[in-house]
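Protocol step 6 of 9: fold each sequence in the batch and record its structure tokens directly after the sequence line. For illustration, a two-sequence batch is reproduced in full.

Sequence one:
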Amino acid sequence: MSVYSYKAADTSGKIVRGTLEGPDERGVAGRLQDMGYIPIKISQAAKEPGKLDIDLSKSIFKLFARVSTKDVMLFTQDLSALLGAGLPVDRALSILTDTTEKEKFREIIRDVLKAVQGGSYLSDAMAKYPQAFSNFYVNMIRAGEAGGVLEAVLGRLGIFLENTQDLKDFVKSALVYPVFLLFMGGISIIILLTFVIPKFSVMFSDMGQAIPLSTQILLGISNGLRDFWWVILLGMITVYFLFRQYAKTPGGQVKVDRFKLNLPLGGEVIRKIEVARFARTLGTLIRSGVPILQAIDLVRGIIGNRVVAGSMQQIHERVKEGERLSKPLTDTGIFPSLAVQMITVGEESGKLDEMLLRVADNYEKVVRNLVKRLINLLEPFMILVMGMVVGFIVISMLMAIFSMNDMPF
């Protein structure tokens, strides 16, 4: 696609100028006619000297741009409200350009506005910025444009993103205290081993065999941590780096995600999260008019667990052959029977989208309850482990002190 400058006249005879993207001059002329303009002159736009190539500058911009889900959610809700008030898309985008707080996202909206003013569809303009608007998001917008229900689709997108963000925020907030407890407990133990215990080691240095075994082990750990902390730290960083590299490979991703699903407590939480994400995404797409086969492909792109995402290909092929959605879902062994039964009822009643969204609501509630139960079990377990470690340190030191009374002087 190349950029062309054009000169055209509108229905009132007013001369307008601008730029459009197109495969050739004939394609641009067709776009102008569809927009209600009479083409006068079309020529390929020349690059201004002293400026970077536009594709290169956009690539560099995309490299550093970071837009959160919350930013996109607020933008979607605001855009839906403005369109509901009767404003045209370009006017609504112009207002959001001025009201968006994050500079990087503001630049993206500004570029989308320029593209829309130049004659591009909103979905095509957004597709150029996958770091902000996912493939799922763009296809939802495209379906809304095709059906003439862009405002309604934006409303559903806003609800979808809000529910997704609420679930993420709930899980993160629930993990704040356990992570804080683990961090502070770890710091306390490290301080004991590296600063407190070495002061006692001077006292015990001449005791020889009189030191109890537990105290010897404790002193060995303390000396090792104090003298070789850099080796331990370097080893942990190396292991983490190698694990990350392995987890990025296709085979590694599948094995790691399968291991996550088989965790005693966390695996159930992950499974329920993926079921809720699958149901909400698929239900939102179908309600917005996206064909079910295309919707399943889009769902596969946003599923976080590779094992669950891999099952989407099998589901897609079997639905394409004419099977109902519920049958391949059952055969994967990943989706709970209750969720499958609700989807079956939705297929039989012709309300598949409604039942999928109901499944999502139910399993998001289940996830919240599971996370609460998991945290309630995790907190006392962590306190118990920390207490046992600190208790071992204190008892080992007391045994060594008491053993000094048995030494011959």
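Sequence two, same batch, same settings:
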Amino acid sequence: MSGVVILLVVLGLVVLAGLVFAVMYNGLVKLRNKVENAWAQIDVQLERRHDLIPNLVETVKGYATHEKDTLERVIQARNMAISAQGPHEQAQAENMISGALKSIFALSEAYPDLKANQNFLNLQEELTSSEDRIAYSRQYYNDTVNRYNTKIQTFPSVFVANTFGFGQREYFEAEGEARGPVSVKF
């Protein structure tokens, strides 16, 4: 009789370990999918921003024809951002766009007619709205990456994560000129 009890206890422990393993694995999968979804949301907002930039540049061109360098920097930054891969490279490219856009918005101070142009004002408002959405999406993404990275590094889920190849994810961080003031030269 004691052999049957030992067998049942061992079987119970195996089933319990299997359940714990399944719950940990499923939790990691859910977090990984949240990270991927959060990145997709950032991508949507960045694409919206990228689509607005050519219209803004065309509007400014009509008023600030001798500001060619500023406009070219915006287009170059946009093109780099479109081709960027991964959070780190994407963050660097987006930081360049942010700096270039600040320069364009500063141009409106030097060109009163541009500042009064309704199309420019609408595009400026749309880009400002996009910046807010990007900031929110970036925060959500980084929070989700933090939860995911913490989960795959803590006991006991670290064993499941290592066994099934759950790797760390990069944060989407501002670097360089996006952290400081932008200098505008005319």
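Proceed to step 7 once all outputs are recorded. Observation for sequence two: The chain has one domain: 35-179.
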